[in-house]
Amino acid sequence: MKLELRDITKRFGPLVANDHISLTVEPGEIHCLLGENGAGKSTLMNVLYGLYTADEGEVLLDGEVQHFRGPGDAMAAGIGMVHQHFMLIPVFTVAENVMLGNEPTHGAGRLDIDAARAKVREIADRFGFHVDPDAVVEDLPVGVQQRIEIIKALSRDAKVLIFDEPTAVLTPQETDELMAIMRQLKASGAAIVFITHKLREVREVADRITVIRRGAVVGEATPDMSDAELAAMMVGRQVELTVRKDEPRHTDALLEVSDLEVTDARGAVLVDKVSFTVRGGEVLVVAGVQGNGQTELAEALLGLQANVSGSIRLDGTEIVGRSVRDILNLGVGFVPEDRNVDGLVGDFTVAENLMLDRLSGPPFVTGGMIRLGTRDDFAAKAVEEFDVRTQGIHEPVSRLSGGNQQKVVLARELSRDLRLLVACQPTRGVDVGSIEFIHKRIVETRDAGVPVVVVSTELDEAVGLGDRILVMYRGRVVGIVPSTTPRDVLGLMMAGVPAEEAAA
Amino acid sequence: MTTTTLTTTPSSGSVEADLRHVRVVSRKPAIAYVVVVALLALLLALAPREGDTNFRFSAESDAIRIPDVSVPGMTVAWICVALTAVIALAAVALLRVHRSAPLWMSAVFALVGFVAFLSWAGAGSDRDFPVTRLVGGAVLLAVPLVFGALGGVIGERAGVVNIAIESQLLAGAFFAAVVGSLTKNPFAGLFAAILAGMLVALLLGVFAISYRVDQVIVGVVLNVLVIGLTSFLYSEVLVPQAQRLNETVRFTPLRIPVLAEIPVLGPALFNQSLVVYLMYIAVPVVWFALYRTRWGLRVRSVGEHPKAADTVGIKVERTRYRAVLIAGGVVGIGGAFYTVVSVSSFGKEMTAGAGYIALAAVIFGKWDPVRAAFAALLFGFASNLEGALSVVGAPVPSQFMLMLPYVVTLLAVAGLVGRSRAPAADGVAYVKE
Does B95 lie in the same domain as B146? Predict the structure, then answer.
């Protein structure tokens, strides 16, 4: 089925998310939609999928104009979508998820679960998946959950498949497998839209590439273009894709973690006897696929986890068991994984957010009163120093773009005298321009002699930023290796293969 | 489509399952046991009673009669307390080796402790303990609670918290009384109660689903509103014309032949009115509907992850509305119980918080219709105990006994329920982006 988008325009208030975007996808073709976070790719696909209604423009399938009032209509017309955040019901089984909305019944509304199971098996077999129709989705790894999303789309005979940032949650191996599946779907005649901001993947599978920037199409690209060329199109200027840094100069500062164990309320050991040291002047990247204990490890460093045993010593001082306040006062800077949940108060102004962790005592508070002048001077300086693009320091931080929000967090954390910096996913949801800046500041902190721990799921970031890389899998340390380790070895380690075996 | 086979992946199996697990030990049961044993021992030591306790297991008219049992009250009570102490010690010993007390232990503990209490309370009384009535009365008192809990389960499974169970019961009782009196037909009363429950549910739906007002607040406001409205209408309209508007014909008990002959339980369970039998049917029907039908699958999906439901073409708001209305109708049946089964007239605020206890049963029953029904039965039992104890003249102030169902509810919800997980989107309005 041939898909055509003509002059799609979608506005949210004054913001134009999609500005007259046109796109054609032929059957048997993988068409890449390349653009930064916030460029409008997901909005466009949500219009196509009937979740949003376009303000202008039309969607055509095989030359016929479609009017979708909801995702149900889009699905009925043959469009399937694999969502970035899986649209699966965690407590349902695979079969229940696949049949939901399209249920086979024995008549009178009684579910025909056997028919649903058979359907799952039939599609799974066709693609060589191994999926148990009766497994509960939340117990399955994300890679398998994604396959269920694909099965769900195929069970409704989708001829146009949209993959929205599908590789964000996958290991490098799973990514390769997904690429193979996409090629297989293409061979069977499906039209595929592949949304991503990862250049490597684009060049690997794309037949055609459309680059989107700030809601508008900036041009077509070809898979044989270099990373630098593609990045420049995507960002609109030349960008530095590699992190510049010198050899580490070690100082005496030292973070020692030994036999650290973190358990959740149900007794699952999320961080399992983890030991490592980070010296002043070096960056240790904790790498791994999302959900293998890195987040909990980082939170334990700040005292945010409840059930922790083992030892964390910062310059000889034991941290485990101390309050977050104490740990902050020791000089630990923390960039949380999700800035909107843990890092910022959206309705507060930039200035307020910049002093959020210093509400007890000077310089900002005397006698229980906030010294507004001091605060505003500080904020103005921080905004300038960290190049935060904002209307002013009194603008609510929620109105800033992701990259600028992250700079506010970083400015706050780096404005204290640090003895340790912990940064989780420092560049997630951040535009390429800001990534450069954030990486530079982290390297500067390292060069100032502070031990730095960065948690990252992006292989590029791990290799670029780290002096050493600690790979975690299922809560355990697979290995600690130099950042010169080949990518495919790191990829295997992220799937739990020990370093020596992976290198062999 | 062509068929090719891809290489298999290393990624099968679950992250959660692959993690090492340590055993999480709950101290709650052991602590609760020790406290209860101490309280029981204190009660027996400080307020000893003389004489025997008589337990009566069947009525004069029963076909199969079980002889009454007469035991020395204090002796049996102390033996039972000793037994509970043994269980408590066992639980503490288990804690030492990092094990939690199993659930059956709690059940045995509760039963033995209960017998201890009854033996003490009945000692020396010249009246018998009517065990049959203890069970039968409990079932009867549990009827509105069970219907309320079923309604609660349906609503919350669809993602709408129903604090308004209380007002749906009360509205049901009121309209059943008025319509039942006007028509002198209990079926008409029952029907009116269902409609009344749905009417309150519609209000809940409009505010909670369409206008996305906080569901807890809407529920509380509806409760206050219906209490005020029915109380006003009661004193201004029903009282002056009590004969015409507030005197219903009740459902008469239907005796089910063979089943009613079963000793102890038979008369208690199978010599009841139509509404009680309706309850026996409603519990499995709701279970089947939720877990085995298309409707149930969709209801549960909008309660867990409405956006996912939306992306497969399910109309979230419509599904929620339908579920809330059905839930209201079910609760309405429970309301009818008050005025066409239990008594034959409406009284001011006659539901007396039953809706809130039903809500507790929903949580205690972990949002499952069958478990919630059993929880409601337990609460009904606690309510009924008060009546049974006053029959034998137990030396407990009646005010304390009136507290019993609420204390049981609190304890049950706080500690003994174990881990329970509400539907993920329970109480969260769905906002389409």
Answer: no
